[in-house]
Amino acid sequence: MSSPTSDATTARGGTRPLAEQIESTYERIGVTGAHKQIVFMILLGVFFDALEQNAVGITGPILRESWGLDASSIGFLNTMTFTATALGRIATGLIVDRFGRRNMLTVNLIVFAVGSLICAFAPSYALLAAGRFIVGFGLGGEIAVAVIMMAEFFSAKHRGTAVGLINVTAAGLGNMLAPAFGILVFTLFDGPDKWRWLFGLLFLPALLVLWFRRYVPETPRYLAATGQIDKCNEVLNRLATGKLAGKVAAHEQYIVGAQETTAATGSNAGSWKQVFSKKLLPRTVMLVIAVGMSYAAQISMLTLMPMILVSLGYAVNTSLWFTLLMQTGSLLGALTASVVANRFPRKLVLTLAAILGCGSGLAIAFLGSNIVFVLIFGVIFNYSIIVLNTTIWLFAPEQYPTRVRGFGTSIILAAGSLSGGLFPLVAGAVFDAGGIGAMFSVMAGLFVVLAVSIRFVPETFGKPLQEDDNAIYGH
How many CB atoms within 10 Å of residue 101? Predict the structure, then answer.
């Protein structure tokens, strides 16, 4: 069996490209206990992020009753959250490409926790909106770093499942259990201010996640791409032995310096501009359009559905139970996307999910007077959305080399957040003017635009992540 060092060099004594070295090392190491610990520590934070993302929709009916807010005011809280999420993702993308992925996991979680406390104790609507902005900023950065790190810690064979687990946890379990969390809080704490308890209780898990995450290392791909070969090999040895803490006895040289590494000495100043280069800009624009459509549908559904059900005459808790039932589709969609990610091309999965989403949206539009059909097609609608979002989350980091992967991926995720923050205002206005039929007819059209846009993005299925700036997938 060849040694790790010999595997990193060619038969003629040259150095293999970093992409090949890291991919072959990951394939040889496989998935160890250290990988599983990293996944758990990242997903633990993602789960509570998902609960926070649903907080406005859950507390909306209570805020409307206790503070006399109208639908526009509640929608604005969501707009503040997701506009800040977009800004947080862009800022985080710039930072993680320059200073690394690991530290931003902690920073974003602290910002998120502070925002939760401000919301819990907000004496006025203005301060509540400010708190939601702070929450959104931390929330956006958290998800962006999670997607990038999960993509960079695994080989092509396991990458789809790893990134897919983020949405299994967030859009699946998180979105599905968020209404149950609201029901539990509103059952334990009564009165006009019971919504404060929901925001306040989300602060406590953040402290737990901070404690666990101190063991998460920097990704080997980032370390190698910035010339930190010794640190890269140290992390790879930890992954190979399954030990994230303490000393590692063995220290094998899995990665040796490559030509493209010498150009990256730890400073990536100006590299973010490459995202807007002639080669990368078209795919960035098309994925921005695609994710904008899917997030617009998802966040409109999350934000407005409890209020729509209440307006149809159902009690708050009944509406939350119905919402929970429809969110089972999110969990099924995330699980499906994780499984098919290693078996089918990205563009095929996106196209089929878009067709299903469009059909279920039209079904709700024309059969919305019957609650049974709303629930059935609501499950399918959410299923389609999460298959789309999960696949886009996987597709995005595969489009960029390591030195700009953070910024490129963050732009795409930020576009989704911005769309999710703004479109519920449009969807709410359409609902007020034309009811559930008009609203879901408009949302069905979003899937058509998505299906067209992804046709112009290069397929990446089964290919390793690129480490250098030149070996980018062609059309």
Answer: 26
